[in-house]
Amino acid sequence: MFSLEGITTNVQDWLLMKFNPTMALAIECVIVILLSISLFAILGLVLVLMERKVAAHIQIRLGPNRVGPGGMFQTVADTLKLIMKEGLTPDKADKFLFNLAPFVVMMVGMLLLAPIAFAKNFQIWDINIGVLYISSVSSLSVIGILMAGWASNNKYSLLGAMRSGAQIVSYELSAGFAVLTIVVLTGSLQISEIINAQQNGWWIFKGHIPAVIAFVLYIIAVTAETNRAPFDLAEAESELTAGFHTEYSGMRFALFFLAEYINIFIVCAIGATLFFGGWMPLHIGNWEAFNHLMDYIPSSVWFMGKTFFLIFLIMWFRWTFPRLRVDQLLNLEWKYLLPISLFNLLLVAVITILGWHF
Amino acid sequence: MYNQTEIIKDTSELGADGELVINMGPQHPATHGVLHLVVTLNGETIKKIEPHLGYIHRSIEKMCESLTYRQFIYVTSRMDYLSSHINNLGCALLVEKGMQIEVPDRAKYVRVILSELTRIASHELWLGAMAMDLGAFTPFFYAFREREMITDIMEDTCGARLTMNYIVPGGLMYDLHPDFQKKVKAFITQFKSKVTEYEDLVTNNVIFQSRTKGVGILSAEDAISYGCTGPVARASGVSCDIRKIYPYEVYDKVQFDEVLETAGDSFARYMVRVKEMNQSIRIIEQLIDNIPEGDFVGKTKNVLKLPKGEFYTRVETARGEFGVYVVSEGGTTPHRIKFRSPGFSNLSVLNHISVGSKIGDLMASMGTLDLVIPDIDR
Predict the structure, then answer these.
(1) What is the pLDDT of residue A138?
(2) pTM value?
(3) Which of A301, B188, B211, B314 has the most CB atoms in a 10 Å sphere around its CB?
(4) What are the pLDDT digits (tens) for B306-344?
(5) How far B137 CA lies from chain A's nearest CA (Å)?
(6) Is A341 exposed, middle or buried (0-12, 13-18, 19+ CB in 10 A)?
(7) Residues 50-89 of A with CB under 8 A from B
(8) Which CATH class is domain B60-377?
(9) CA atoms within 13 A on the CB side of B239
């Protein structure tokens, strides 16, 4: 992976030279759409394989190793199978909502891609309320899940969807407060400014204890928001067979499955941006030589490395912990995480006002 | 496209308001077989559970009436397939008791060692399956790593990994495999070094403890009145280990503790089984070096005929008391036969211990009851 710096500006300059500004913008839109769709496909394949490999090594087995070298094409084969399968719609389901739901969930993932900075100067849309945009759009995914659960006309789906609704709405708060901690430290909602503020050290190191607490809260909350174990109550296959996507088959199921992994990637990318400086290399104080050496590593490698580290962390959770019960899940949020996040926000406000951070 | 009245009519087919009936099973990931539970819910809270049986009924008891006393033993492997060796032992004991067949010491020792290995294998499978019910996948593979060693030993010794069919009235079908002692010792070493992994991964896990402690509480009185046996009853403080109360084979010669817990909740049932595995290891350790030389099968007639009368034996399987009751009219086949299977009684408490709890708790309760459906249905 190489540094993507400058590619965007070159492309734009060239387009502006050849076409009028409106046409150039339209072409850029098409390019971005194509790029994000292909990114989705690649991410889905890579993350599913990664999950299976991580799970296998945690579970003292080998994982996929037959299709292609080291099982590399296993997910390609699986996807082909899913595409060729018939997508059944239950007889008494609400057909319109039933077929719409997977696309709503996918769409949310696509929208969230916009403000993420993949490398230095490589960002689709550097909106000035980036963090607010992320918080608000990510809560839309619950609509897709509720839609799927309700429209399936299946009791397991309904229970799964109701659980998911309660869960996402609750954990949204903690995730939001954790993000706000960084916003308070930076003083800006814009993603690029948050990254630039971490030039001489990532927030997890600079932000003292509040940033560490916020990071822990963020990881717990987003694990719950993406319906991953130990918070995978919406699917809970030993209780509700498959939860909200019980009735889905073929490509529509694959879309839910893909959306789960895309969401993991996005929340981890945001986590890496906020707490680990996004594409910013690791810089330590006055160690000039070390800092220069770190600068030679391309920014896209830094970003992907940090993101995949967080993804690994979330996968590690899944294959280690049992699932929580639904009342324990809500207790954890409302009795522990929310008060801690409120207190943490207060603490970080005091620290920022007194200027105690680096 | 969207017909509201139709959808509402379909989702609330039950009379009382706020009630939702879910058919859990016969095909459901948590029932581990073809158990069908009709669960009445109020939101997430369980109001009633009604088990429906019969999906895997093979009328084994009726089949046994047309099989000779040598043959009917092996049908019982297909009942509680995780304790098939112990089931076979119960039936063989009945024939030996009825016909006063002398069993050589060597056979007695081997039977007990294999029974305890079967018990460990069964508990290992239960551990993995129960953790899976609670949403943790990894313990399953850890438990199967050790279970695999036992099934390998069984394969060497009996030729089969699951339905052993190793016992004949009067002793054993073949002599031991030459590697038997070596392999069992290797298993003991492996098990002892790895059992701490279960503690780290499952027992000491905060989420696991909060999912099981205080969930599905069964009092000692209820355990007795529902006829619970085995680890389910012992977790409620009821002393009911057949190996201690009515020792058979060489259980009176070995030192082991009957594991008792008093809490009666899912965690207590979990702890009883985990500690029982250690006790089984203790029994095997005492016997494995002292297997006497000699015949592996006693002298029996070619055609076995039980004298006229009624016979009953019981053994302790991994799930509890397994009883065999035979009415004989003096022929070569049993006139009437009845098995007392532990799973059936243990299942009957499910409604009692789960009412008022959440769906997630049902998985913990059901998992720790350790149900094997072919044992319940027969």
Answers:
(1) 83
(2) 0.84
(3) B211
(4) 888 889 998 999 888 899 999 988 888 888 899 988 888
(5) 6
(6) buried
(7) 55, 58-61
(8) mainly alpha
(9) 6
